[in-house]
Amino acid sequence: MGARRKLLLVDDDDMMRRSMRLALEQDGWQVSEAENGRLALARLTEVHPDIIMLDLMMPVMDGFGFLHALRADPRFRELPVIVATARTLDENERRDLAETAQQVIEKSAHTRHELISLIGDQIQELIARRAAATS
């Protein structure tokens, strides 16, 4: 078996992180966690994730601040990000996310189980698209 894919899970909700971690690890992912954007930025260089799953509403540094800092660093400009949020987004926020994230999933539209499954599917799709683009 090749190297396990690495995911950085950034969410302040302990239960969501635990559920996502278990589901993704069962799928063969190596999952690292951060409770806010500032901790996530600090973990990037030690974790070297293949993809990031990001909540928007967090203390200390929210998802928008994290995305702007992430995209400002040339090493991480192309790193795929899936946003999973309970926040109702306005047009400016949607436009901003369209430029900084690959996918936005609304948590409120799904049960926890559906959300975990949907996020897993989106992660696999993003990885497959990136692999196809680089081959």
Strand order in space, largest sheet = 2-1-3-4-5
SS summary, helix count: 5
Range of helix content: 40-55%
Count of DSSP E strands? 5
On the 0-100 scale, what is the average pLDDT? 85
Number of domains: 1
For this structure, what is the CATH homologous superfamily?
A: Response regulator
The sequence of SSEs as H and E is EHEHEHEHEH
CATH C-level: Alpha Beta
* Terminal Cα span: 20 Å
What is the CATH architecture descriptor? 3-Layer(aba) Sandwich
Fraction in beta strands:
15-25%
Q: What does the largest sheet look like?
A: 5 strands, parallel
Q: Strand pairing plus helix content: what structural class?
A: alpha/beta
CATH topology: Rossmann fold
Which regions contain 5 or more consecutive residues with pLDDT less than 50? none
Radius of gyration: 14 Å
Name the overall outline: globular
